[in-house]
Structure to design on (937 residues):
C-alpha cells in the first residue's frame, strides 16, 4: 500500500515561497501528473516526496506513515530524473545494480534482477557500456531500469521524457502507460507538457505560483477548468477568454451581446465584470450573432485554425474542418455553443462560475 | 589553409616561442658546459663539449639531495593535508545549507588574495612560541595559508561542476550522504582533485618567502632557499652548478608537464580564472 | 496539533554534517590565517625588537611614522610602477601570444607547453636563469644586444637605475604572461566561428575582426585577468627580492620588500606590521572589486 498524502505542506526558501499550503492525496496505484509552468512548485513537490527537499511546514505521508524525517533511501520510492542522473563511471549493469547493492542484496540475486530489468527494457546488449556511450533514449531506459529494479511502491518521475525527440517521446509515453499497467504502482509524474499529462495520468494536479489550481481527471480539467489559469493553460490552441460584463442572461463584449444560460451559473453569481471562455472547437462559424473578421487561416492538414478579430477583445481562435472555405478578410457571424461556454470571475482568483453537475462531457 | 601559408606561420610562431623559451634553453646549455667554456667572451651558443660534471658535483658534494628530499616531503605533506581539507570543505560549501556558509566562501576568496607578508610576522612569532621554528611542520602550516584558500576555491568550482542530480539519485537509491559522496561524487571529482593537488604541489614546491623566514638550518631547508643560500655563501658564484640545480629543481615540473598537463589546463578553466 | 519544529531532524542532521565537514578547514583557517591577520593588526600598535621579541605599546605611532615618513610612499610608488609596467607587458604580450597559439600551425601543443612553462617554474629558478642572462660580463643578453647593435657597452642590468626597474618588469612579464595566455586562449576557443564568418560577410578585414569580434568577446575575461594579476603583482615578493633585493639602494623596494626588511633586517616588527597592514588596505580596493565581480557571478 502506498498512497501519498501532503497535508498543509509549505516550502519557503530564503527569498521566495515555492509552495503555499499544499494539500494533495494520491491513491495507491494511481498515476498522477503534476502539471504547470516552470517555477510553479511541481518539481519542489516531487523532490519533497523523494526526501531531497524538506517542507518548511506540514506533513508528508507515504503509505500512511509520516516520512518527513525519513531519508530518501528508506522511503520505498524510486525516482527518474530529467537529466537521468546516470552514474558516469559505472556501466549500465552497475548503474542498475546500485540501488540493490545499497540495500545489501547479494551478488547472485542482484545479477538476476538486473537481467530481468534489462530484459523488460531491452537493455541486454548494452549492459557493459558506460552511460556516455548510449543515446538519449537508451540512457532514459537505463534510468527507468534503475528505478524498476528494486520494485518500489512509488515511482517519482521528473520530466523524464523532456530530453527526448518528439517521436521517441510519443513512443515512450505508451511504454510508460504500459509499464504502469503492468506494475500497478503509484506513480507521480512531473511535467510541463500538457499532452503528456492528459494522455498518461489518471488525475492531473495543475499548479501555478506555488499553489494547487485544480486536481482532477484530465477530462474534468479540460471541460471544467476551475479557474482562469487552468482554462488558459490547458488546451492548444488555448481557450478564448473574453472580458466583458454579465447582466441577467446577457454577456456583453465590445458592444455585442451573447446569451448566457443563467441556470448553468452558480446561484450566487452577480452581474458585472466577468470573463467568458470558449474553446476554439466550440465556436460556430457563420452561425451566430457576433460580427467578426477573418484575419488569418492556418491549415494544419486535418483542420483549419481560424483567427478572428472581434471588437473589444483579443484575437479569437476557432477550429474549422479542413475542407471549409474561409478566406482572409471575410466578414463572418460567429456564435458559441451555449452548453459549452465557461464563465469566470474577472477579479481575484478568476474562479469558475458555472455549475458543473449539469455540464457533463459528451459520451 | 595552403601549405605554404601554414609553413610561414609555423616558422614565425616557432621563432617567437623559441625566443620566449630561450632563457630555459640557455639554462640547460649552461648546465652542460665545462667550467672553462662558461666564461668565454663572446659566449659559445652551443657547448663545444658536453659534460654532466656539474650535476655530479651537485649530487655528491653539496646538500642538494637533502634539500630535494625536504622539498619532496614538504610539498607532498602540504598537498595531502590541504587537498583533503579542501575536498571535504568544498563539498560542504557547495552542497550543504547552514548559517555562515556564504560569509565563509567570501572569506576564502579574500584570503586567496591576501599578501603573504601580512601574515608572515605573526606566523613567525607563532612558530617561535610553539617551538616549531626550523622544522618542516612549521612550513607545512605556513604553506597552508596560501594553499588552502587556493585549493578550496579551485575545488569549489570543480564541485559545482558535478551535477547535483547524481547525488540526489544516489540518495534515492539508498546511499547515505557520505555514501553518495564516496560512491558517486568522489569518482566524478577525481580529475578536479588531481588538478588541485598538482597546483598545490607546484605552489609548495616553488614557495620562497616562508622558507626564507621560518627555516634557518640546512636540515629542513627546501630547495628554493637552499639553492639560493649556496649562491650567496659561495665566493665565486658557481653559475654552471646553479644552472644544473635549476634544471634538477624543475624535474617534477617537467614530469607534470609531460604527463599531466591536461589537469593543469582544466584547473585554469575551473577556478584559477573565472569570468 | 502540536507545534511542529521548523526543521526536520533529517534536515538538521544534514546541516550538522555540513558543519562537521567544514570544521577542520575552519579550525586551520582560524589558526593560520584569521588569527595571524588579527595579530598583525594588533602588533602594528607595538614597537617590537625582533631578536628579543620584547616590545611596548605605542598606539598609532607606527602609523604616524608611516604616513609622515618617506619610505612608505616611496615604496608605494615603486610598487605601482612595477605593477603597472609588468602588468601592461603581460597583457599585451599574453593576448598577442594567445592569438598566435590559437592559429593552426605545426606542433602546436608542444609550442603551447613551452610557452606555459615559465608560469609554473619556481621563481628561484626563473631568477637564477635571468641573473645569469643579465650578468654584465658573461651574460648572454648584453652580448646579443651588442651583436645586434642596440648598445655598444655591456649594461649593468640589476645594479643601476632605471635598468633594475626595467629588468624586474621584464622578468615579471616573462614569468607571468603565460597566465594571460592560458586564460585568453581558453576564451578564444569558445568564440563561435559564425561570428567571424558574419564579420567577413560584412566585409571586415582581419584587424577590424580583431577589434569588433575578438576584443569584445575577451572583455570580461580580460577584466578578471587584469584584476587578479594586479593583485598578485602588487604583492609580489620573491621575484624582486631575489633579483635586486630592492636595490640599487631602495629603487626597486616594493611594499612587500619594505615589510620584510623592516621586520627581519632592521628588526622593527611593530613598524613592519604597520607597513603590512597599510599595504593590505591599499590592496583592499582591488580585492573588493574582484570579490564583488566574482561573488555576484556565483549567485
Amino acid at each position: 500500500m502506498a498512497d501519498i498524502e501532503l497535508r498543509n505542506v509549505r516550502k519557503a526558501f530564503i527569498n521566495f515561497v515555492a509552495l503555499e499550503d499544499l494539500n494533495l492525496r494520491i491513491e495507491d496505484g494511481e498515476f498522477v501528473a503534476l502539471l504547470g509552468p516552470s517555477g510553479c512548485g511541481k518539481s519542489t513537490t516531487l523532490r519533497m516526496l523523494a526526501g531531497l527537499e524538506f517542507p518548511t511546514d506540514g506533513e508528508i505521508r507515504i503509505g500512511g506513515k509520516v516520512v518527513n524525517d525519513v531519508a530518501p533511501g528508506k522511503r520505498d520510492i524510486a525516482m527518474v530524473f530529467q537529466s537521468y542522473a546516470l552514474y558516469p563511471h559505472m556501466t549500465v549493469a552497475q548503474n542498475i545494480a546500485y540501488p540493490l547493492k545499497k540495500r545489501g542484496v547479494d551478488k547472485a540475486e542482484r545479477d538476476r534482477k538486473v537481467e530481468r530489468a534489462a530484459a523488460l527494457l531491452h537493455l541486454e546488449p548494452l549492459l557493459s557500456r558506460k552511460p556516455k556511450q548510449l543515446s538519449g533514449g537508451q540512457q532514459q531506459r537505463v534510468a527507468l531500469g534503475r528505478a524498476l529494479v528494486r520494485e518500489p511502491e512509488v515511482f517519482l518521475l521528473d520530466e523524464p521524457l523532456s530530453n527526448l525527440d518528439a517521436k521517441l517521446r510519443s513512443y515512450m509515453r505508451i511504454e510508460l502507460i504500459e509499464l504502469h499497467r503492468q506494475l500497478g504502482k503509484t506513480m507521480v509524474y512531473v511535467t510541463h507538457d500538457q499532452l503528456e499529462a492528459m494522455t498518461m495520468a489518471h488525475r492531473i494536479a495543475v499548479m501555478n505560483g506555488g499553489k494547487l489550481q485544480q486536481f482532477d481527471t484530465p477530462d474534468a480539467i479540460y471541460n471544467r477548468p476551475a479557474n482562469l489559469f487552468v482554462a488558459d493553460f490547458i488546451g492548444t490552441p488555448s481557450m478564448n477568454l473574453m472580458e466583458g460584463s454579465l447582466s441577467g442572461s446577457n454577456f456583453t463584449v465590445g458592444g455585442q451581446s451573447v446569451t448566457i444560460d443563467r441556470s448553468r451559473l452558480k446561484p450566487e453569481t452577480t452581474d458585472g465584470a466577468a470573463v467568458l471562455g470558449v474553446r476554439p472547437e466550440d465556436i460556430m462559424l457563420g452561425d451566430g450573432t457576433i460580427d467578426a473578421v477573418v484575419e488569418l487561416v492556418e491549415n494544419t492538414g486535418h483542420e483549419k485554425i481560424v483567427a478572428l478579430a472581434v471588437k473589444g477583445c483579443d484575437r479569437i481562435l476557432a477550429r474549422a474542418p479542413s475542407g471549409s472555405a474561409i478566406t482572409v478578410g471575410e466578414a463572418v457571424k460567429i456564435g458559441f455553443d451555449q452548453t459549452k461556454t465557461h464563465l469566470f470571475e474577472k477579479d481575484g482568483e478568476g474562479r469558475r462560475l458555472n455549475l458543473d453537475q449539469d455540464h457533463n462531457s459528451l459520451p | 589553409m595552403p601549405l605554404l601559408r601554414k609553413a610561414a606561420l609555423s616558422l614565425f610562431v616557432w621563432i617567437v616561442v623559441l625566443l620566449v623559451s630561450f632563457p630555459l634553453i640557455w639554462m640547460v646549455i649552461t648546465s652542460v658546459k665545462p667550467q672553462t667554456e662558461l666564461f668565454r667572451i663572446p659566449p659559445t651558443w652551443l657547448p663545444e663539449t658536453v659534460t654532466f660534471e656539474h650535476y655530479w658535483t651537485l649530487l655528491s658534494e653539496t646538500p642538494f639531495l637533502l634539500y630535494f628530499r625536504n622539498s619532496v616531503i614538504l610539498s607532498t605533506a602540504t598537498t595531502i593535508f590541504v587537498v583533503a581539507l579542501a575536498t571535504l570543505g568544498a563539498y560542504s560549501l557547495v552542497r550543504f545549507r547552514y548559517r555562515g556558509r556564504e560569509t565563509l566562501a567570501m572569506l576564502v576568496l579574500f584570503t586567496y588574495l591576501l599578501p603573504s607578508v601580512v601574515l608572515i610576522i605573526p606566523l613567525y612569532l607563532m612558530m617561535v612560541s610553539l617551538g616549531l621554528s626550523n622544522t618542516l611542520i612549521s612550513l607545512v602550516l605556513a604553506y597552508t595559508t596560501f594553499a588552502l584558500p587556493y585549493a578550496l576555491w579551485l575545488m569549489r568550482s570543480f564541485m559545482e561542476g558535478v551535477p547535483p542530480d547524481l547525488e540526489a539519485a544516489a540518495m534515492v537509491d539508498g546511499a547515505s550522504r557520505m555514501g553518495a559522496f564516496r560512491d558517486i561524487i568522489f569518482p566524478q571529482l577525481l580529475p578536479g582533485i588531481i588538478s588541485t593537488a598538482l597546483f598545490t604541489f607546484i605552489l609548495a614546491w616553488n614557495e620562497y618567502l616562508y622558507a626564507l623566514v621560518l627555516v634557518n638550518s640546512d636540515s629542513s631547508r627546501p630547495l628554493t632557499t637552499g639553492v639560493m643560500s649556496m649562491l650567496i655563501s659561495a665566493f665565486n658564484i658557481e653559475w654552471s652548478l646553479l644552472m644544473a640545480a635549476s634544471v634538477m629543481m624543475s624535474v617534477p615540473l617537467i614530469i607534470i608537464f609531460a604527463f599531466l598537463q591536461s589537469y593543469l589546463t582544466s584547473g585554469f578553466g575551473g577556478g584559477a580564472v573565472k569570468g | 496539533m502540536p507545534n511542529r519544529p521548523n526543521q526536520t531532524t533529517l534536515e538538521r542532521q544534514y546541516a550538522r554534517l555540513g558543519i562537521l565537514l567544514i570544521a577542520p578547514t575552519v579550525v586551520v583557517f582560524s589558526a593560520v590565517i584569521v588569527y595571524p591577520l588579527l595579530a598583525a593588526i594588533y602588533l602594528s600598535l607595538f614597537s617590537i625588537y625582533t631578536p628579543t621579541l620584547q616590545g611596548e605599546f605605542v598606539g598609532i605611532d607606527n602609523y604616524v611614522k608611516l604616513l609622515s615618513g618617506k619610505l612608505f610612499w616611496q615604496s608605494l610608488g615603486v610598487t605601482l610602477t612595477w605593477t603597472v609596467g609588468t602588468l601592461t607587458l603581460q597583457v599585451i604580450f599574453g593576448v598577442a601570444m594567445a592569438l598566435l597559439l590559437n592559429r593552426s600551425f605545426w606542433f602546436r601543443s608542444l609550442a603551447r607547453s613551452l610557452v606555459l612553462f615559465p608560469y609554473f617554474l619556481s621563481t628561484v629558478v626563473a631568477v637564477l636563469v635571468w641573473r645569469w642572462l643579465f650578468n654584465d660580463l658573461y651574460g648572454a643578453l648584453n652580448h646579443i644586444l651588442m651583436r645586434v647593435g642596440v648598445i655598444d657597452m655591456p649594461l649593468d642590468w640589476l645594479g643601476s637605475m632605471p635598468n633594475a626597474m626595467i629588468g624586474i618588469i621584464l622578468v615579471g612579464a616573462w614569468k607571468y604572461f603565460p597566465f594571460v595566455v592560458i586564460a585568453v586562449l581558453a576564451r578564444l576557443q569558445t568564440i563561435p566561428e559564425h561570428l567571424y564568418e558574419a564579420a567577413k560577410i560584412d566585409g571586415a578585414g582581419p584587424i577590424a575582426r580583431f577589434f569588433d569580434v575578438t576584443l569584445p568577446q575577451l572583455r570580461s575575461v580580460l577584466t578578471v585577468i587584469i584584476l587578479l594579476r594586479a593583485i598578485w603583482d602588487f604583492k609580489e615578493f620573491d621575484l624582486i627580492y631575489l633579483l635586486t633585493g630592492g636595490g640599487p639602494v631602495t629603487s626597486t623596494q616594493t611594499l612587500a620588500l619594505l615589510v620584510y626588511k623592516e621586520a627581519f633586517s632592521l628588526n622593527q616588527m611593530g613598524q613592519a606590521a604597520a607597513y603590512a597592514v597599510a599595504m593590505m588596505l591599499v590592496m583592499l580596493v582591488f580585492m573588493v572589486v574582484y570579490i564583488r565581480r566574482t561573488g555576484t557571478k556565483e549567485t
